[in-house]
Amino acid sequence: MTNLTLYAAISRFGALNYRAKIMLMAFIGTHIPLLGIIAYSVFNLTRDPGLIWSTLGIALAATLVGTGITLFVLNQLLAPVILTSKALRTYRETRELPALPVSFRDEVGTLMADASHTLQRLDAAMVQLETVDPATGLMNRDAFTDTLNEMLAQDKAPAVCVVRVANYARLLATYDQSHADGFMRQLADRLEAGLERNVPLARVEAAAFAFIKRVDAGRPESVEAVLRENLSSLSHPVPVAGVEAMPELTGGVALAGVDGAYGADLLDAALAAAANTTIPKTVSRHAPRVRQEIREQFELEQDLRKALDSNEFLLHFQPVVCHAEGRARSAEALIRWDHPQRGLVQPSQFIPIAERSGLIDKIGLWVMREACAQVGRWNAHGGDRLKVAINLSASQFLDPRLRDMLAEAIEAEKIAPDQLEIELTESAAMVDHDYTRRTFGRLKDLGLSIAIDDFGTGYASMSYLRKLPFDKLKIDREFVSNVDTQPDAQAICSAMIALGNGLGLHLLAEGAERIEEVDYLASRGCNLFQGYYYSRPVPAGELIETLSDIELLSARRKAEMPAPAKLRQVV
């Protein structure tokens, strides 16, 4: 390597640029002979002063002229180096390619030529990285939106068509990136072959292609027909790692001027439309309403993540009424979300989001602890001992820590275990038969009662249910609604009640909204009811008063009813 000691030493003079430093060194170098003559003349001044002074004058003049010429030439010779330096800096800051001369053949000439060629190759590589998908060789998202914006600027009104590969993630998980890329490359080749020449085609996401289609005047549906044909032509097996893999494709369409005015908006709209359908070879038009709903769901999920820390959840309680006694001794705890902007959000809106986002276990744990805490507060105020039922999600039920968490919540509030009831949906109870049987046994050993919720909507077999140690069957509201007038519902409810009574279980009809429903099911042997006929879910502070109102309602109705010799049978 060339020795840079002198260069490093001179570089310490930060106030001077490179050109000034070279000029300074040249100036000093050209004046060294003059300084030598001056020194010689000083020591010999007495010999011939006239000769000395004339010699000094000539030497000074010659030195100054020579210095000027030297500095001028050096400055010109340094120009290529300075030009190359500025070109490199300009490219780094602005990505503007320099126009450096490439015809010179000496060292500085090759420096300029090599710098120019290197920057051109670098720029081409960067353009390739920025605009081309490496796996398929197609345009990427940025290049596609730029092309789309250019067409929009020319007052063209194209449609954006998206082909989404729904099983791409499974392919990637099954094999590896190279095989997944090979799969997409073959699909890209097929798609490109099926399009007209010069149609802009791009891979805009890992699992999605997009192309631009001209819209026939007054016939936007023609675009959907073309995309549907493309999906059909692509829906043939693709060889991947020795296996014939069938692509699962959906399509989305967005129209310029209708679904967006800018390229990025149109592409996003078409992608959203393709993602909204799960049926293979189906084409979906962009629907702003659907996209708005998706956006609201996403925003709600982000708010949901903060709700626990912000103490935005609360419990409401819906009484469970014993028809024979005309009073309620238990209630179901139902979570509500008091959103700071949206107000009270119902569980049907946020529970599915919590399940998808993995927040359901944290929320379920909060419900468990808060329900036990509320029972403890009621116990502290005296009066009748109330039992509270809480719902478990499927993932909560499968948590091996479930029994310990319940035991800790009960112990923390010093309540009796029999004041807590666990509700599990029929479908959740059927996930793992052996696990369900063991877990039910452990919860029963703890002193808890167990209810099967939404009974009749799942696929549990009668022979399986009778082997489980649980206490209560909850008949789903789907069968309770208008049961007094619906023969099919009557037959189903009668069978459920007979099953429950035969197994020695308590029967609870949920969703009872009319007295006729209550009377019919009570006459068939169902004794527990929950629904709007008796009470809506109420805040904890209103439950005691609500229970008193239910007793008054039941007493008043008994007083108004005639006393027939036997109950009238409703067929």
Automatic annotation (TrEMBL):
Keyword Calcium belongs to the record: no
TM region(s), chain numbering: 22-43, 50-74
GO molecular function: cyclic-guanylate-specific phosphodiesterase activity
All residue ranges annotated as the EAL domain in the record: 297-551
SUPFAM superfamilies: EAL domain-like, Nucleotide cyclase
Gene3D superfamilies: 3.30.70.270, EAL domain
InterPro entries per UniProt: Cyclic-di-GMP_PDE-like, EAL_dom, EAL_sf, GGDEF_dom, Nucleotide_cyclase, Rev_trsase/Diguanyl_cyclase
Keyword terms, alphabetized: Membrane, Transmembrane, Transmembrane helix
Protein name (record): GGDEF-domain containing protein
Species this protein is from: Devosia pacifica
